[in-house]
């Protein structure tokens, strides 16, 4: 692989990098002017809707300079909110990862009655207003809720404590990984798995060696999105948190508090950490592409 | 389902692929515990009002106006995303240009940024003295504190759904098919509309459905930019909050249950359409 | 079902962790309204030091802030706050009536209806008052844009609405119809209804929306300090509302946690000279006349009315004006 001048003809099937081919082959590409106008429109759209808000977050965060920026982040209440956010995400993401793979497997590899219904039920948390997502746990675990009195008698703290925050986070991010995988695995069909099985692989081997390599990028997107949303969730967590300073405030709640205290630059400093998550996505993807670039190129041929 | 008649593949749950029972069992258990049982609470609570009570809450002009705004703006925002989302995904997957990786990363921003921060950032951009708003103001276009602001916020939070569902499918899409189509004499437009679009369409529908569903329920970012005037720019989730402020839990859950039911029916419709288009779309 | 067990274990584990931390030093949780956060930042350390000096005991006070009604709801739904402090008595009543967590006669337990301080609604206008706003009547003029938070979701908005109503009623010899007409035209001039007081301030100060902002007196200095000392002027209307800040022990929680004694001392400290001075320093009017006088430069003379007297009772004001389908809703639905 180290030698770019590998003799392609010796390989079977010939391994020809795609990009140069596209550049050369006009029949499956667009004229240059079309390409650049599309790029222009896409970038303009992204700039208006995403880049400018991002820039405004960092501008506000750094308004008073770097010193106050870092001071705002290492402030004890801010640190405890960062810790709580990490805990909530660390519990919610793996659980939803397990669900996502499992649900996508049965939905895409099998046909059964009521599949659309199941998919719609999985989508449901997206359509539930974050406000309602918090409210449902209040209805259940609140003092006047269905399980509230029992929970309180046993001195188990769910609402206005960490478990409630974790539950709300799981609920809100529930569909992400499943929803990322389902269209991808549908598109891929079951042929590869059928082939592997007919060659004597067991189910787990098939999943690990055949399915997983095919879905790893979708899986990665899903995990990153799920994580981002888990850390950024505001509405639902706000209802179940109780807003106890230094104890049950997650990063988004801490941001709201700072903003309401007119500590705008501190608020945006904490917010910029969450905005930076998007840039973590960039880092992880670049790393994986660099590390597994060969596999990725091969993977495309499946 | 009618797909069972598709030739060349066994499609019953008793296919050679293992793991149906255990995975479906796990999925349904988890789904029930985390989503269905808690959500049932909403319906049980609102049922306390009776049909007449629910109808009375939902049919008040203010609630109707709010529901109309929430669903209408969400639909427009999802349509905007359904146009620009695939375009963005296409540009990312197929073209090389400077800053591509950076823009690719920024797509996830609406997920990571707390909705309140997004709302504040968007409001500061689009208010009459903001970076963008100052140019729109002389043209007589008001974005912040109007229903247009609601659409902007909803477009913002929905965009990643469309891009991130279409993008992996485009990445996996086999270029051989395009080459074959081209070899067979199809021009570029025919190839795109008849080879690429059908491949991407189910994913696009999914992304559309998700962006729509998410926008309908969105609260945090919108209250900053909407203006919240009753009958004009007041969204349904805000009415839920207002009912809660009046300690009217039953009324709040009545609106919530109505929104949930409408969203769910729409999701079901779109997902059925998606299944239908996938079968019809000639996926091989 | 296994899942259920795992979740339960998880929950119990978290509960234990939280419980263990509690046993060490007694902790109070004060669930309070939004704009009291600056006050309690100053007040709590002074009380903790005072308590330590008197009893030798270390204590911790946790603060939770949010919209007054939202906080009341959290307490009703199980937030284990020993103390609830508010900017209106209505929300304390709700904890008593809907949550049954404190007795109905809470207002009699401490002096001055359990309200150690009060504030009022003033006008903040742009520097030089370019629109010449002097009194409530000017807010309903055409061409004047008024920023006020949503009365349905904020105490600030509720007080502003009631003050406008009462002013118009008195001006028209007690005519409720005229009051309604006036309030209707005032709210026609409102371009944005933010959900909370701080949000309305941001809209007015940061987004440059509106000619006048209706807000609490204790917010005015903060607005000037944080958002531009030479950008705003204050206008004192001819009549405004007295906004009491009641405070109560959430009896059921405090007795369960065994913190009633500390909670009582905590509330009493609000009435002490030290506590009253901290109020004054935060631009909240103390009820102690001597201290109010000492800080007279901060607190100009006002002509105030009391909601209970003007509207019969807080509960009545709420049900007539702000409840679902009440006057405020009718105004916006053009009925």
Q: CATH topology of chain B, anyone?
A: MetI-like fold
Biggest interface reads: A-B, 117 and 118 residues
Strand content of chain A: under 5%
Tally of DSSP helical segments of chain B: 13
The percent of residues in helical segments of chain A reads over 70%
Number of strands of chain A: 0
Provide the number of structural domains of chain A.
2
Count of spatially separate domains of chain B: 1
- Find the CATH superfamily of chain B: MetI-like
Structural class of chain B: mainly alpha
Order of secondary-structure elements of chain A:
HHHHHHHHHHHHHH
Q: Under CATH, the topology of the largest domain in chain A is which? A: MetI-like fold
Rough shape of chain B? globular
CATH architecture of the largest domain in chain A: Orthogonal Bundle
General description of the model:
- The complex is a heterotrimer of chains A (302), B (284) and C (335).
- By secondary structure, chain A is mainly alpha-helical.
- Chain A is built from 14 helices and no strands.
- Chain A has 2 domains: 31-62; 65-299, MetI-like (MetI-like fold).
- Chain A has helices spanning 18-24, 32-61, 66-74, 76-109, 115-127, 130-141, 148-153, 162-173, 176-188, 191-198, 203-232, 235-241, 251-260, 264-299.
- Chain A is globular, with a radius of gyration of 24 Å.
- In chain B, 74% of the residues lie in helices and 0% in strands.
- In chain B, helix 6 crosses helix 8 and helix 10 packs antiparallel against helix 13 (249-280).
- Chain C has 2 domains: 21-116 and 245-298, Periplasmic binding protein-like II (D-Maltodextrin-Binding Protein, domain 2); 118-243 and 303-333, D-Maltodextrin-Binding Protein, domain 2, CATH 3.40.190.
- Chain C is 52% helix and 15% strand.
- Chains A and B meet through helix 1, helix 2, helix 4, helix 5 and helix 6 of A and helix 1, helix 3, helix 4, helix 5 and helix 6 of B.
- Chain B: Belongs to the binding-protein-dependent transport system permease family. CysTW subfamily.
- Chain B: The chain crosses the membrane at residues 20-44, 64-93, 139-163, 195-216, 222-242, 249-270.
- Chain B: Keywords: Membrane, Sulfate transport, Transmembrane, Transmembrane helix, Transport.
């Amino acid at each position: 692989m180290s030698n770019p001048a590998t003799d392609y003809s010796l390989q079977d099937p010939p391994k020809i990098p795609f990009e140069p081919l596209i550049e050369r082959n006009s029949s499956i590409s667009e004229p240059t002017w079309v390409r650049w106008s599309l790029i222009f429109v896409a970038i303009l759209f992204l700039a208006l809707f995403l880049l400018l808000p991002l820039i405004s977050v960092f501008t506000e965060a750094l308004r008073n300079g770097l010193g106050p920026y870092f001071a705002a982040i290492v402030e004890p209440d801010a640190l405890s909110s960062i810790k709580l956010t990490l805990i909530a995400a660390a519990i919610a993401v793996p659980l939803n990862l397990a669900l996502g793979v499992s649900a996508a497997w049965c939905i895409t590899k099998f046909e059964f009655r009521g599949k659309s219904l199941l998919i719609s039920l999985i989508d449901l948390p997206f359509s539930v207003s974050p406000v309602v997502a918090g409210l449902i746990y209040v209805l259940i675990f609140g003092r006047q809720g269905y399980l509230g009195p029992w929970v309180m008698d046993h001195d188990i703290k769910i609402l206005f404590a960490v478990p409630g925050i974790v539950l709300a986070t799981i609920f809100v991010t529930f569909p992400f990984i499943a929803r990322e995988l389902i269209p991808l695995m549908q598109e891929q069909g079951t042929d590869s798995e059928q082939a592997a099985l007919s060659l004597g692989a067991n189910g787990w081997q098939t999943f690990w060696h055949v399915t997983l390599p095919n879905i790893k990028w979708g899986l990665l997107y899903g995990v990153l999105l799920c994580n981002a949303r888990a850390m950024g969730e505001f509405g639902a967590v706000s209802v179940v948190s109780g807003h106890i300073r230094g104890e049950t405030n997650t990063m988004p709640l801490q941001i709201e508090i700072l903003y309401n205290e007119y500590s705008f630059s501190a608020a945006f400093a904490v917010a910029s950490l969450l905005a930076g998550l998007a840039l973590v996505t960039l880092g992880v993807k670049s790393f994986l592409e660099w590390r597994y670039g060969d596999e990725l190129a091969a993977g495309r041929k499946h | 389902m009618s797909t069972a008649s598709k030739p060349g593949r066994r499609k019953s749950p008793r296919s050679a692929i293992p793991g149906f029972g255990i995975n479906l069992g796990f999925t349904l258990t988890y789904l029930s515990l985390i989503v269905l049982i808690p959500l049932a609470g909403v319906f049980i609570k609102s049922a306390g009002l009776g049909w007449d009570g629910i109808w009375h809450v939902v049919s008040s002009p203010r609630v109707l106006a709010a529901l109309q705004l929430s669903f209408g703006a969400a639909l427009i925002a999802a349509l905007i995303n359904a146009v620009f989302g695939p375009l963005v995904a296409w540009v990312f997957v197929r073209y090389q240009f400077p800053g591509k990786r950076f823009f690719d990363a920024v797509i996830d921003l609406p997920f990571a940024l707390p909705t309140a921060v997004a709302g504040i950032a968007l409001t500061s951009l689009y208010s009459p003295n903001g970076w963008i708003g100052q140019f729109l103001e002389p043209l007589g276009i008001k974005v912040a504190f109007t229903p247009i602001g609601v659409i902007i916020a909803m477009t913002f939070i929905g965009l990643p759904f469309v891009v991130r569902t279409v993008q992996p499918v485009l990445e996996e899409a086999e270029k051989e098919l395009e080459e074959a189509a081209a070899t067979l004499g199809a021009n570029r437009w025919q190839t795109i509309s008849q080879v690429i679009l059908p491949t991407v369409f189910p994913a696009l529908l999914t992304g559309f459905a998700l962006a729509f569903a998410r926008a309908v329920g969105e609260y945090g970012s919108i209250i900053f930019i909407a203006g919240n005037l009753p009958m004009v720019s007041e969204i349904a989730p805000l009415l839920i909050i207002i009912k809660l402020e009046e300690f009217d839990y039953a009324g709040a859950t009545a609106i919530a249950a109505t929104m949930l039911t409408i969203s769910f029916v729409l999701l079901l419709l779109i997902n059925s359409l998606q299944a239908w288009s996938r079968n019809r779309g000639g996926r091989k | 079902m296994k899942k259920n067990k795992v979740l339960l274990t998880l929950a119990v584990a978290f509960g234990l962790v939280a419980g263990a931390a509690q046993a060490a030093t007694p902790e109070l949780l004060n669930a309070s309204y939004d704009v009291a956060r600056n006050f309690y930042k100053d007040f709590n350390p002074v009380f903790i030091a005072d308590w330590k000096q008197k009893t030798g005991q270390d204590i911790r006070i946790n603060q939770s802030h949010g919209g007054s009604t939202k906080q009341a709801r959290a307490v009703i739904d199980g937030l284990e706050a020993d103390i609830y402090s508010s900017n209106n008595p209505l929300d304390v009543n709700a904890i008593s009536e809907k949550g049954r967590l404190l007795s109905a006669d809470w207002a009699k337990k401490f002096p001055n209806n359990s309200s150690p301080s009060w504030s009022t609604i003033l006008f903040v206008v742009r520097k030089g008052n370019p629109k010449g706003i002097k009194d409530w009547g000017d807010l309903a003029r055409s061409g004047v844009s008024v920023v006020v938070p949503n009365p349905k979701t904020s105490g600030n908005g509720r007080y502003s609405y009631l003050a406008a109503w009462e002013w118009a009623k008195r001006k028209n010899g007690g005519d409720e119809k005229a009051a309604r007409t006036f309030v209707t035209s005032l709210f026609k001039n409102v371009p944005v209804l933010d959900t909370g007081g701080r949000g309305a301030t941001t809209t007015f100060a940061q987004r440059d929306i509106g000619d006048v902002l209706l807000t609490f007196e204790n917010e005015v200095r903060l607005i000037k300090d944080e958002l531009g000392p030479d950008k705003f002027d204050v206008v004192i209307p001819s009549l405004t509302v007295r906004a009491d800040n009641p405070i109560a022990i959430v009896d059921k929680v405090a007795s369960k946690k065994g913190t009633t004694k500390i909670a009582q001392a905590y509330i009493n400290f609000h009435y002490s000279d030290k506590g009253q001075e901290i109020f004054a320093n935060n631009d909240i009017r103390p009820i102690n006349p001597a201290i109010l006088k000492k800080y007279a430069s901060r607190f100009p003379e006002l002509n105030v009315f009391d909601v209970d007297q003007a509207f019969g009772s807080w509960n009545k004001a709420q049900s007539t004006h702000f409840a679902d389908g009440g006057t405020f809703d009718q105004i916006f639905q053009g009925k």
